[in-house]
Amino acid sequence: MAFTELTTDLSNISALHDRPNDEDGMSAAALKAAFDAAGNAIKEYINETLIPELEASGAGNIGIDPITGLPGATDVQAALVALLGALEDVQAGTVTDGSITTPKLGDLAVTTAKLSELTVATSKIADLAVTTAKLANLAVTTAKLADRSVTVEKIALAAVNNEHIGSKAVKQANIDDSAVGTNQIEAGAVTPAKTTGIQKAINVANVTLTTGGWTNKTQRVTVSGITANSRFVASPSDAAGWDAAADATLYPPTADDGGLTFTCDTVPSASVNVTVYFWEA
Q1: Are 248 and 197 in contact (CB under 8 A)?
Q2: Could you report the per-residue pLDDT of 217-233, keeping only the tens digit for each?
Q3: What is the Rg, in whole angstroms, of the alpha carbon atoms belonging to the chain?
């Protein structure tokens, strides 16, 4: 918002004739009023327009040249607000990004004690910045490594020897599916003695297809633990269920994560109890 300009024509004296009494028929009082008109117009503008605008938002109407470090501050008010924000940031311990450069930091100015947990994120460390020479012995402990932070790509060939692996360090929970490929298993490494007792667990669930649960001849029931990739067998639990399933032409269900969906040609007249056996493929 800019200040309101004074647009009143102040040329009221020069507009008069040379002999205003004779030619314009002006009285002495009218002539005096003509001389006072410009001054009164200026007085009225200052008192009734300019001063109220200065008092209300004068700083916001005074433009400034661009100031480095205060982007977007185009007037005095905006510059003051930006300066106040910068001062509050300094009070709160916040510093504008990029304001503290390497030349401004003395040697050993940033110590471990001055860095809060998780302050130095991976994205803030340049490639190859942390070398072996910069790591003290035992500086990188298991507790300081995020899950899956040490990937195959980050381990040099033959870097992990038998002596570096503790007893029972590699557990089944630490091995991703398909992590160990055929080419990574030595000939004869997997023996019958090492696979004895390994079998897939078979889960059992009992569900009921209720008469009121059908929608467009389709009903989904919850089966905790089943997935879309599970293998399963679902069949009526009793003779009455077999009869109802046959009368309704009940089709084999389809599995999704957490349930089975049944379809039929005719909605059964009674509830059907179903036993489900399922296991992972």
Answers
A1: no
A2: 999 999 999 999 999 99
A3: 43
